[in-house]
């Protein structure tokens, strides 16, 4: 076999497509492999550069191929698309990956460890259960409302409805309706218990991770946000700066600029939506405490001054941007968060109010993308 320098590997459930080129860029390999054949083929192949799309199972295959001595780079699928010629099929995808992985300006996804992926599984499982809990609560409230039974909003107030279901002597709930709603109530109680178990597991993962414990010192970041950040961003130093990290998360405005005139729009849905949501929710909680006036730090003064002229939720998103930048500094510099005093700037802390959150250059996409 001729010397293979670069391989584009299009992974799937069972059939994997390979596209290899030599040093001159000439195609020397076009091959389809079954899943069971992949380890044997690459273990016998001399070390080369292998590109994969950062999709399902990509991190597992990256770790497997790296164990054979190969250099593996994961590429966001959206960045492979421009290199795809005409019709889409496995062979064309592999060729596009092979072309994209050699581009000097290409952005890559760092390979996550099994522990980092396991921590993210805790978060994804928790989100799924919370969604199911919300659906069950809405179903119970809707069914009880049909019978004229309404309780205050909030998950904890649903306990009153569950108590009515278990109260066989209650005349307000017909026996047939009780039979229909008992399975929903039982599922809701079980989901609550499972969410509590996942919360304990996330807290244990947070306490065992030094990066996560440092992140928890930032206002608006607790164990859930900190552990998710630590697991999602294996190497924050690969971002050129805090602006790029905030742009990766999606906490910068859309920029429809042209003709040398910068124009900033609203916050888009680009970036890591899950982390963006967590940071915005955390910023809401931090903003409630900062606006009280008892805290005298540069961050608190900045938040209060902005609240005087902007809506609360707009300020919360801007605060989430600052929190993300502080998180980048803590992760990239391996330092603990130090809240700056009024009018001062400390290493690892938040930058003072002269920082322009939504400057035009802040909308650049990070050098490294995370999946």
From TrEMBL:
InterPro entries registered for this protein in UniProt:
Transp_IS110-like_N, Transpos_IS110, Transposase_20
Identify the residues that the record assigns to the Transposase IS116/IS110/IS902 C-terminal domain, covering every copy. Answer: 213-291
Q: Which Pfam families match?
A: DEDD_Tnp_IS110, Transposase_20
Q: Which GO terms describe its molecular function?
A: DNA binding; transposase activity
Ranges where the Transposase IS110-like N-terminal domain occurs? 7-145
Question: What are its GO biological-process terms?
Answer: DNA transposition
PANTHER family (alphabetical) = PUTATIVE TRANSPOSASE FOR IS117-RELATED, TRANSPOSASE FOR INSERTION SEQUENCE ELEMENT IS1111A
NCBIfam families per UniProt = transpos_IS110 (NF033542)
> What's the name of the protein?
Transposase
Taxonomy of origin reads:
Bacteria, Pseudomonadati, Pseudomonadota, Alphaproteobacteria, Hyphomicrobiales
């Amino acid at each position: 076999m001729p010397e293979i320098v670069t391989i584009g590997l299009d992974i799937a459930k069972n059939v994997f497509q390979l596209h290899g080129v030599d040093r001159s860029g000439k195609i020397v390999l076009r091959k389809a492999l079954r899943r069971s054949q992949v380890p044997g083929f690459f273990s016998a192949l001399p070390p080369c550069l292998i590109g994969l799309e950062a999709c399902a199972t990509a991190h597992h295959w990256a770790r497997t191929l790296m164990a054979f001595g190969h250099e593996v780079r994961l590429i966001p699928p959206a960045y492979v698309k421009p290199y795809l010629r005409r019709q889409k099929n496995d062979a064309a995808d592999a060729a596009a990956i092979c072309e994209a992985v050699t581009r000097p300006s290409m952005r890559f996804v760092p390979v996550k460890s099994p522990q980092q992926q396991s921590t993210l599984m805790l978060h994804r499982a928790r989100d799924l259960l919370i969604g199911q809990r919300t659906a069950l609560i809405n179903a119970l409230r809707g069914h009880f409302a049909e019978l004229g039974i309404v309780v205050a909003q909030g998950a904890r107030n649903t306990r009153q409805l569950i108590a009515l279901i278990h109260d066989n002597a209650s005349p307000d709930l017909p026996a047939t309706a009780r039979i229909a709603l008992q399975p929903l109530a039982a599922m809701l109680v079980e989901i609550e218990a499972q969410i509590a178990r996942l919360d304990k597991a996330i807290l244990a993962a947070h306490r065992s991770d030094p990066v996560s414990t440092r992140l928890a010192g930032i206002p608006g970041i607790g164990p859930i946000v900190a552990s998710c950040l630590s697991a999602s961003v294996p190497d924050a130093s690969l971002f050129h700066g805090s602006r790029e990290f905030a742009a990766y998360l999606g906490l910068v405005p859309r920029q429809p600029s042209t003709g040398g005139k910068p124009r900033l729009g609203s916050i888009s849905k680009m970036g890591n939506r899950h982390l963006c949501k967590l940071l915005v929710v955390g910023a809401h909680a931090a903003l409630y405490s900062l606006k009280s006036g008892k805290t005298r730090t540069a961050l608190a003064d900045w938040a209060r001054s902005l609240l005087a002229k902007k809506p609360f939720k707009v300020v919360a998103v801007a605060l989430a941007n600052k929190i993300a930048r502080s998180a980048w500094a803590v992760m990239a510099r391996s330092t603990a968060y130090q809240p700056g005093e009024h009018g001062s700037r400390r290493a690892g802390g938040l930058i003072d109010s002269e920082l322009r959150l939504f400057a035009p250059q802040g909308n650049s996409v990070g050098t490294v993308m995370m999946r």
